[in-house]
Design goal:
Blueprint lengths: L8 E2 L9 E6 L7 H8 L4 H5 L15 E4 L2 E5 L6 H19 L10
Antiparallel strand pairs: 1-2, 2-4, 3-4
Length: 110
């Protein structure tokens, strides 16, 4: 996430715990965690067209929760594979860039 160099989404690597990642949304941005989470669970044709899918051609859904209006909590556990993590990173990178660049579908983010 930090490698995206986003002004909207950041992670405090110093506070990173073993299996919990907190993604902060800039206070300057009017997007709330709830809307970002809704978008992470949505599969769009644009994603499929840009190869944001599994090797089997399935769309990717990322399930995370909001800690508050400006923080997304990501938790992993032992059964999540490296492939699953790569799909998660792929989807999150796509969505975060979409939001950062204001390329989200009209009306979705309010």
């Amino acid at each position: 996430i930090n490698s995206l160099r986003s002004s909207t989404f950041t992670v405090d690597l110093k506070s990173l715990q073993t299996n919990i990642l907190m993604i902060n949304i800039s206070e300057k941005c009017n997007i709330e965690a709830k809307k970002v989470i809704e978008r992470l669970q949505l599969i769009t044709q644009s994603e499929i067209d840009q190869n944001i899918k599994t090797q089997d051609g399935e769309g990717i859904i990322v399930k995370v929760i909001a800690k508050n209006n400006k923080t997304i909590r990501v938790t992993t556990y032992y059964e999540i594979s490296d492939i699953d993590m790569n799909y998660t990173i792929k989807k999150m990178s796509f969505v975060f860039k979409e939001i950062e660049c204001n390329l989200a579908p009209r009306g979705f983010f309010g």
